[in-house]
């Protein structure tokens, strides 16, 4: 039932609206789930978020303490070089010319993970290096011969001794009861590691197991390793009874020194996702469809459908005589906060800093033979234009032609047109 | 989180999770996996700011606002390639008003609305929010919400027909 009875007294509902309300209550009321599991997962997410936020704050405020003449020592939290004995990385106060560690690339992280895993096959590796915001990670599919499994490692800093550092490695309490096992171990070097053997889906409608190890060192390096008994976190069938690494192996993987070296090479502003302003696509007012029409290549097109004067998102169905193509455009302001999500290693960066990614793939929702071509562009100030087209006139239709009407080059020219921003 | 606060949060989350989930199912037009993710994300956000949230007058309403914004933020990150449902053709006429239960037809119709329209429908007609409150939840002006509301009602009338009582009540 609705939480708040805040109906506007000056706007009485008409019969259709009354029926709509009743219909929504009927439609919404049938959805049920395992609430306790949802609460558990939500709280775990909250804990991780708290940790990330703390890492971001610490990262953003980290100070550089000069060590001797040449070396720089990065401190979490901005204290003195000796605060809590928290020297980070291999630098020591006596090292007068220790250079700042070189960044560790995504490829290096992939190689590190492959080396640390037992013999097996690797695929679908992806990673972000330590100098790529918002934070480094490596993710791949590992098969030891008994079934493909997703394995991921992410790296961050936390403030040593903080509540967040403690909470990261504390097994969830009785309010968070949905897991098979959880243990916390103190390693000889005083690092603390928690291994949690739980489930990806709180209601366990699919038995995807999610096991993770969270390790925090005395100096605040935070290594988080996850593995699943499926080739992907979600929407992927279970391939084996359990994830490939035992709790003990998971613990050892998290404790590998290579991860700590990588964390030490993270520049001070790497982990700052929350400091980014959140954007709003409402700031962009240009009507999409008319602009798109004006930017079509100088060939003959018939336009059979048009989204009108909406800004933000619009589309045209065009036909150059060879069959219909649905062309859709999104124009958004201030999307720099999600650049990392949208533009992977395949993206190109133009001299002015604009990122361009091209995708040519079968249409996810399309009918027989349908393909979708997309050019996604993000200017250095965060403004984004995405244009995509199908070789059919509607998302679920079969292909009406072999390829869409506009070439990738033409899509690119449209997306990069300065007119979107005039 | 201190113990008392943690207990309060756990109690609140347990009490509200079901409703949040049902709202999320409507926002996602029946995509229960996404709905679950959105509720987890919402509860995660509330967890982080619980100290402040618990002091506001209406944490339940606040939670619903966070859910709506989380949903809109999620949709915003998706590219046009995933907004294809915005331009689906109308429901075939022969299905309207026949044996199709209203709830299924309604979910299907919601699935054909752009994200912001869906958020307006859910906040206005499921949450019973006023235009002003809907506008605040969506970070929009009330004029914009009013216009959107008129348009979306028109669209739903087109999709569902004028009289929803024609549908089977199962």
UniProtKB/TrEMBL annotation, chain B:
Pfam families (UniProt xref): Sigma70_r2 (PF04542), Sigma70_r4_2 (PF08281)
Residue span, RNA polymerase sigma factor 70 region 4 type domain: 105-154
Top-rank lineage group of the source organism: Bacteria
InterPro entries noted in UniProt: RNA_pol_sigma-70-like (IPR039425), RNA_pol_sigma-70_dom (IPR014284), RNA_pol_sigma-E_actinobac (IPR014325), RNA_pol_sigma70_r2 (IPR007627), RNA_pol_sigma70_r4_t2 (IPR013249), RNA_pol_sigma_r2 (IPR013325), RNA_pol_sigma_r3/r4-like (IPR013324), WH-like_DNA-bd_sf (IPR036388)
Keywords: DNA-binding, Sigma factor, Transcription, Transcription regulation
Coiled coil: none
SUPFAM superfamilies the UniProt entry points to: Sigma2 domain of RNA polymerase sigma factors, Sigma3 and sigma4 domains of RNA polymerase sigma factors
Start and end residues of each RNA polymerase sigma-70 region domain: 24-80
Recorded family membership: Belongs to the sigma-70 factor family. ECF subfamily.
UniProt name for this protein: SigE family RNA polymerase sigma factor
Gene source species: Streptomyces coacervatus
């Amino acid at each position: 039932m609705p939480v708040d009875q805040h109906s506007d007294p000056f706007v009485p509902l008409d019969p259709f609206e009354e029926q709509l309300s009743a219909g929504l209550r009927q439609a919404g009321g049938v959805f049920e789930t395992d609430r306790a599991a949802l609460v558990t997962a939500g709280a775990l997410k909250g804990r991780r978020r708290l940790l990330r936020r703390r890492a971001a704050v610490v990262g953003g405020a980290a100070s550089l303490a000069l060590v001797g003449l040449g070396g720089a020592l990065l401190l979490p939290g901005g204290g003195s070089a000796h605060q809590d004995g928290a020297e980070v990385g291999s630098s020591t106060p006596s090292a007068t010319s220790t250079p700042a560690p070189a960044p560790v690339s995504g490829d290096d992280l992939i190689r590190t993970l492959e080396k640390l895993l037992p013999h097996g096959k690797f695929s679908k590796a992806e990673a972000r290096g330590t100098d790529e915001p918002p934070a480094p990670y490596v993710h791949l599919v590992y098969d030891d011969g008994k079934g493909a499994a997703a394995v991921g490692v992410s790296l961050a800093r936390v403030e040593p001794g903080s509540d967040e550092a403690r909470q990261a490695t504390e097994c969830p309490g009785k309010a968070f009861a949905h897991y098979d096992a959880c243990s916390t171990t103190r390693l000889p070097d005083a690092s603390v590691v928690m291994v949690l053997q739980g489930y990806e889906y709180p209601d366990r409608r699919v038995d995807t197991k999610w096991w993770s190890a969270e390790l925090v060192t005395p100096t605040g390096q935070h290594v988080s390793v996850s593995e699943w008994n499926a080739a992907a976190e979600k929407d992927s069938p279970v391939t084996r009874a359990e994830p490939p690494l035992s709790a003990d192996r998971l613990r050892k993987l998290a404790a590998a020194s290579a991860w700590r070296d990588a964390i030490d090479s993270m520049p001070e502003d790497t982990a700052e996702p929350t400091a980014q302003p959140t954007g709003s696509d409402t700031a962009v007012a240009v009507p999409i469809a008319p602009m798109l029409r004006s930017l079509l290549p100088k060939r003959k097109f018939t336009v059979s459908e048009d989204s009108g004067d909406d800004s933000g998102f619009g589309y045209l169905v065009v036909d150059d005589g060879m069959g219909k193509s649905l062309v859709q455009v999104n124009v958004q302001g201030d999307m720099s906060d999600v650049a990392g999500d949208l533009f992977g290693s395949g993206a190109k960066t133009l001299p002015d800093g604009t990122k361009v990614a091209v995708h040519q793939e079968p249409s996810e929702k399309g009918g027989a033979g349908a393909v979708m071509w997309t050019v996604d562009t993000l200017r250095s100030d965060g403004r984004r234009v995405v244009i995509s087209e199908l070789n059919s006139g509607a998302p679920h239709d079969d292909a009406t032609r072999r390829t869409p009407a506009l070439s990738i080059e033409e899509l690119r020219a449209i997306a990069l047109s300065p007119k979107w921003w005039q | 989180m201190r113990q008392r606060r943690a207990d309060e949060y756990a109690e609140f989350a347990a009490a509200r999770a079901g409703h949040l989930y049902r709202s999320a199912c409507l926002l996602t037009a029946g995509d229960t996996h996404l709905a679950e993710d959105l509720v987890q994300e919402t509860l995660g956000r509330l967890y982080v700011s619980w100290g402040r949230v618990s002091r506001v007058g209406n944490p339940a309403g606040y939670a619903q606002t966070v859910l709506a914004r989380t949903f809109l933020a999620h949709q915003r990150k998706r590219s046009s390639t995933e907004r294809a449902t915005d331009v689906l053709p109308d429901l075939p006429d022969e299905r309207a008003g026949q044996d199709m239960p209203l709830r299924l037809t309604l979910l299907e119709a919601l699935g054909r609305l752009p994200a912001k329209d869906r958020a307006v429908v859910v906040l206005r007609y499921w949450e019973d929010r006023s235009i002003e409150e809907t506008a605040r939840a969506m970070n929009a002006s009330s004029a914009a919400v009013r216009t959107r509301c008129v348009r979306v009602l028109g669209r739903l009338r087109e999709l569902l027909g004028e009289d929803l009582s024609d549908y089977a009540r199962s």
